[in-house]
Amino acid sequence: MSLNDELTADLKSAMKAHDKESLGVIRLLKAALTNEKVKVGHDLTPDEETTVVMKEYKQRKESIEEFKKGNRDDLVAEQESQLKVLDKYVPEQMSQEEINQVVKDTIAAVGASGKADFGKVMGAVMPKVKGKADGSLVNQAVKELLQ
Questions:
Q1: Looking at residue 10, what DSSP letter applies?
Q2: 47: enclosing H helix or E strand
Q3: Are 12 and 65 found together in one domain?
Q4: Which of 19, 79, 98, 122 could bond 94 through an S-S bridge, CB–CB 3.0 to 4.6 Å?
Q5: Which InterPro entries match (predicted)?
């Protein structure tokens, strides 16, 4: 079942259950996917769909951080509940150990020796973990392992 079919089925379920929150999040996600489809001019590949879902997920995470700084607990709660709905569509994330292993393998493959090779390593690692790991965790792992 494609992501769009899954979203449509979940949209119908949310409508029947009168679940306004899930309904809103699913509609936003469907709109983001449709916008991306129009932008690229073809049906989205699973990788492109994952990219759109991760972008929406990351936006919610960043909003939570900002709302916490501003002591807006009401908005933090709203964003966290939206994240719970989005969790269903986000691919399973890699553990820190798995990220470290990919980074170690990549460092060996590109022959990186120090901090000067940070960009080269990040450029090689990110396509391998796209959609499966948070970029900030990968960034942190590369910095630690290049020291």
A1: H
A2: helix 46-69
A3: yes
A4: 98
A5: Asn/Gln_tRNA_amidoTrase-B-like, GatB_Yqey_C_2, YqeY/Aim41, YqeY/Aim41_N
Q: What is the model's pLDDT at position 101?
A: 87
| DSSP 8-state assignment for residue 116 | G
Q: Examine the pLDDT at 111 and tell me if it is beyond 90.
A: no
Q: Which two tokens stand for residue 110?
A: 């590109």
Tell me how far CA of residue 60 lies from CA of 15, 25, 33, 40, 144, in angstroms: 23, 11, 16, 24, 27
Quickly tell me which residue has 């929406």 as its tokens. Answer: 56
Token readout for 20 is 């306004």
d(CA 83, CA 59): 10
CA proximity to 95, closest of 40, 61, 66, 138? 138
Tokens 């509940």 found at? 81
**Number of structural domains, the chain?**
2
Domain match, 55 and 103 both: no
Q: Is 42 exposed, middle or buried (0-12, 13-18, 19+ CB in 10 A)?
A: exposed
| CATH code: domain of residue 57 | 1.10.1510.10
- What is the average per-residue pLDDT within 74-82? 92
Tallying the residues shown for the chain, one arrives at 147
- Dihedral sign from CA coordinates of 38, 40, 43, 45: negative
Measured distance CA(65)–CA(73) in Å, rounded: 11
115 has a pLDDT exceeding 90 = no
